[in-house]
Amino acid sequence: MTQIKVENATMGYEGVPVIKDLSFQIDEGDYVCIVGENGSGKTTLMKGILGLNPPLKGSIKYNGLDKNEIGYLPQKKNIQKDFPASVMEVVLSGCINRKYHIFHNKKDKENAIRHLQMVNMLDYKKHSFSQLSGGQQQRILLARALCATEKVIVLDEPVTGLDPIATADMYSLIKDINHKGITVIMVTHDINMAVRQASHILHISAGTEGTNFFGTAHQYVHSSVGSKFLLTECPCDVCTHSHNKEVK
Q1: CA spacing 20 to 30 A to 130: which of 21, 23, 110, 139?
Q2: Residue 129's CB: how many other CB atoms inside 10 A?
Q3: Which residues of the chain have pLDDT under 50?
């Protein structure tokens, strides 16, 4: 089932387009990585998907999904690192996105505990968020984002600033989340990781006249757009994937 459909979308700010005539669709269970040069409009598109920046032209449509049901993990640089709150309080704050009040019931707390278990951080629920390492904080914020959704999660450069071990752990968690049925949409500069882990790649080229690409990871590796940005040969695990979605 298609969850998000972008049709001939021109997106930008104050009437000035950054992305022009972009069309693609994201189906339930997809793992989509959004890649491209700096300034190409990746963050602009992400804000559009979240409903924070409507298209100047065209449309973004949701099927069986409300934009308020999308979990969001912003860039680490945009997150306050010294929250004067416990881990449990930070994770519970993700439940507010689906509510019209600020009080948490038993179901909310069970939801928070379930997602802390999912990111292997339940033992830290009473710890101060500000005292955790960068990798641990990012896990907590991932659990927080998951509290807002059962369907789709948007991640903006989720491994920025993390060491190699924490980066590998975060990618593993994201893959596990996708395997549990949650659609993943991730902005990343790590193209080599993207073709190994994602089911689909959306490459946005800088400039409104640039060539964009949307298709499977396998198709991206063998495309003219992808070949310019990949630094290694096609990973065999990508080549042996079974893909059936056509490029839009």
Answers
A1: 110
A2: 23
A3: 78, 99-101, 232-248
pLDDT tens for residues 124-148?
A: 999 999 899 989 999 999 999 999 8
198-242: per-residue pLDDT in tens? 999 999 987 656 678 999 999 999 888 888 777 544 444 444 443
Does residue 201 form part of some domain? no
The answer to the question of residue 114 being in a domain is yes
What are the angstrom distances between the C-alpha of 50 and each of 4, 12, 105? 11, 14, 26
| Per-residue tokens: 184 | 């993943």
Domain range holding 106? 75-184
Residue 64 domain flag = no
Domain count, the chain: 1
Decide if 173 is inside a domain: yes
Q: Specify the amino acid at residue 134.
A: G
